[in-house]
Amino acid sequence: MKNYDMEDIRNIALVGASGAGKTSLVEQMLFNVKSITRVGKVEDGNTVMDFNDEEIEKGMSLSLSVANFDWKNTKINILDAPGFADFANEQISASTAVETLLFVINASAGFEVSFEQSLELLENRDVTKAIIVNRMDNEGADFYKTLESIKENSDIIPIPVLIPIGSEHKFSGIIDLIKGKAFIEGKSADIPADMKDIVEENKMILMEAVAESDDELLEKYFEAGELTDDELLSGAKEAIKNGLIVPAFSCSATHNIAVNELLEAIVEYLPSPADKNEILVQDGKDEKTVICSEKGDLVAYVFKSFSDPNVGDLAYVRVFSGCLKSGLDVFIPEKDSKDRIGSMFFVLGKNRIDADDLKPGDIGALVKMKVARNFNSIVSTNSKIRMLEVPLPTPVFWQSIKAVNQSDEDKIGIALGKLLDEDSTLSMQMNAETNENVLAGIGEQQITFVNKKLKSRFKIDAGLKTPTVPYRETISRNADISYKHRKQSGGRGQYAEVYFRVAPKPRGEGFEFINSIVGGTIPSKFIPSIQKGLNEIMKKGIVANHPIVDISVDVYYGSFHDVDSSEMAFKIASWNALKKAFEVAIPILLEPIHEAQIVIPNEYMGDVMGDVSTRRGKILGMQQKGKKQVLNAQMPLAELFGYFPALKSLTQGRGKFTQKFSHYEKVPVEIASKVIAAAKKTEE
Ligand SMILES: Nc1nc2c(ncn2[C@@H]2O[C@H](COP(=O)(O)OP(=O)(O)OP(=O)(O)O)[C@@H](O)[C@H]2O)c(=O)[nH]1
Ligand SMILES: [Mg+2]
User: Whose CA is nearest to atom 7 of ligand 1?
Assistant: First the structure.
């Protein structure tokens, strides 16, 4: 394969709405550049980018795919991310590897939920952004209305650059406002007479936006009343690169209208790795800038890793600086471990082409890396720099997962570990209290997909269910009790007696053990047994099999027998004494309360607030953020488990939230008695 300098590469990621035509667009591009000889269709399951069984079955993308091709001596690496919000990891991955994010929107559907989610998910990524209004041939397609809806609902002001000629079934080409040229059915043409006004109007918008992006240009613009063609071109490129202009293009993927003109625009107007050749990296606690070049510091980044059934572990990598060669020893700072570069490939969907090396600015795949995974940096063995950490969404949906067949119980952990490696927005925790493996993710489909992959790749059947709430037990009153454990009939006897003063402690203070024995009523050698006995029963719980917290136990009196007292006897006496104390001290359950930040469009405020209250939530406050409301609330975890689907249905998918654990709080009596009754039933 040919070598490309940094200025001859464009790395772009297609993100945005699900169903907007990203995968179809790549398919058409690949056909136009003769990488493939037949145009596949998403609905026929034969496209280059949607090649997984699950994607073919669903007729949509579920994971990030990569393609590369040559367009007039420029190498275009194109990443196709799924638009569906549950697969946010893929969009974030894509955004770490490219200079430009192309947000694709459906011209006939406008500002859809998945488009909004994609914009918000990636709003803080420091990359160039552009808009593709696709499906211009569709009934109801409207380029300007679509751009207007973006302006209305987000902070982005798209500036038309490739404007459509006609729309719906009359869509036949575009006018490139920077070049001032029309292209109809792929050929250069005169600007249609009836479009002069609209071209003039949009060219003014573009020129003003370009002029405003630069003081010098603004002065010239004021003096001359316009910019020259050269000024417009170089000014637009600079403004696009710096995010001062978000250009908008129009096309139809499946009708192959303006797809080549779009490729032309990608090469001519969007930044190359050479245009963005400085990257900020972490160097210990500090940040520093690396100037990217082939001879410079090695900085590469694994933006996606997964295990491929045929080749094993695959890592998609973006080289920012330096050069990757087979056999090179490298350091993976996030793992604090060495690794070695093996075979390298350029990627086209599921196909791979051997690569001798990977040069700065390029994207490829590494096979069988030992430790380098998703979101890991690759640097020289003598270097400690790493890429900046990528912020990820916090979990909003939880399910406990368990192998259906006992024989799979050992395998499931390893399999899940592999699948979790592939999606950084997913995590798993073994909850020792409830004895459950809890998957925490960002959507229902994401977790269902994990379960499907367990089956298809690892042949493991697993069941999913709402996790058990990790309640705690405590008491609400003092108790002063004694318990005598005595078994002295036949053989060696058992004898121990303890007197306890048991008291509740403030939330979060845990367990306090006080030894007030005087005069040796209990010999000091048995005191640790009492404490051990208490620790054991506190771990198991008394009323509902949940750990006991926030109590103090003061052992102040007791009795013993010279022969029959033992460690075990004092342990047993202590268990029973605490059980007795719980009978009088009015036990209560505590539940985890999480703090949630709920972000919703204004119109849903009333409904969402009402729903939060019915979920025993407390509203702490609200504020306006951009075009949305942010509601701060506290909510019991028990209610949070099912909150995400509920919030989505209340807000037509537009609500979202983040959450974190806050504290434990008393469970209302009616709910506590249900939990206790259920625990009794399982015990029986
Ligand atoms: N009429 C028309 N249909 C299109 C066009 N582009 C895509 N489609 C259709 O829209 C549907 C979705 O297209 P995809 O390419 O899968 O969309 P996507 O953006 O990749 O969707 P996700 O993978 O879910 O993010 C398919 O049925 C396509 O045939 C277009 O330009 N015009
Ligand atoms: Mg797709």
Answer: 21
